[in-house]
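Example record for the data management plan.
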Amino acid sequence: MREAVHGDRSTDRNRPDLGTAPVSSTMFDTALRVGLVAVLVYACARIVLPFAFILMWSAILAVMLYPLHLYLATYLGERWSALLIGLIGVAVMLVPMVIVVTSLATSLYSLISSVQSHDVSLPPPPLWLDGTPLVGKKLAEIWTLVATNLPAALTQYGHLLSGPLAWLASFAGGLAIGELSFVLSFAIAAVLIAYGKGGAEFARRLLTRVTGNTARAIQLVTLTAATIRGVGLGVVGVALIQALLLGVGFLGVGLQAAGPLTLIALLLGIMQVPLILLSLPVVGYVFATEATQTAAIFLIWNVVVGLSDNILRPLMLGRRLDVPMPVILLGVIGGVIVDGLLGLFVGPVLLAVSYVLLLEWLQQHPVDGHHRSDEPIL
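Corresponding structural encoding:
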């Protein structure tokens, strides 16, 4: 009996114990785990990085449109509501894209045709230009050559235009890519909207791990969503609506540069620059070239559009936005430099969210640790 027990024990010693805890991690094990995680993050970043701005803009759109989704979902259901929002968003972006591209193509074709047919003419240089120190005489000479013999001027100085023309072609290509990115972003946003509850829960869990506090994580998610809607709707949304309304007016009076003027109006609107700085010279041009009645209607339309932000902003901005305008301006400029047209929208929203979260982290307001699980985060 003792030998049997002894034999069983010896057998147990030779058998690997799968239930015991592993030996405490060594420095090598820790470094190995950190290295594997770093490699995994790097590999994922390489895949996601080309689509980073599109994904960020899609997430911003999803947060902005989620309240509309909740309203429509009561009548259509979760999936049909998200599908409807996605289809309408894609259609709304395709129509301005076609209008802007058509306007730009028409303007460029008209300019090229005028140059080829020698219809482009300049008045003689002013007398004061010749007397300007250092560069006056040379500028007057070039001006006279362009005004009297455009082909000869292009032959002599055409190489100087290669840089600006290359920049213009690059800008046009970036504009087209940006417009297509908008269409793709709305399609991705529709998918994110359909899984909005899961996305909000993922953000809450992630911030809980980062902050170590569930209540603060919920507070940060709510603050982020409110800031995105504040900047996205109260700044970018209002600017987009005003720019589209101005574009309708530009097309209505038959301006060939309606597309570029609409883009300039959008840029000025996001930077919170009064649109009268753009519309006033255009109104003066319309009064000089069109009938008085048409010009008067165009003037009234521009005044109405310019004052519409007093109505649109309170409607679209549910809370007071405590983001300084220099932060918005820096986001606009930096976003355009980094990612072109798409960065024009992503930049100010992303920088505003970062600014608000930074202030919240610095202030560290005490929050109640109890939160009902059935309360909506967004």
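Summary line stored alongside the record: Residues 1-5, 367-375 have pLDDT under 50 and may be disordered.
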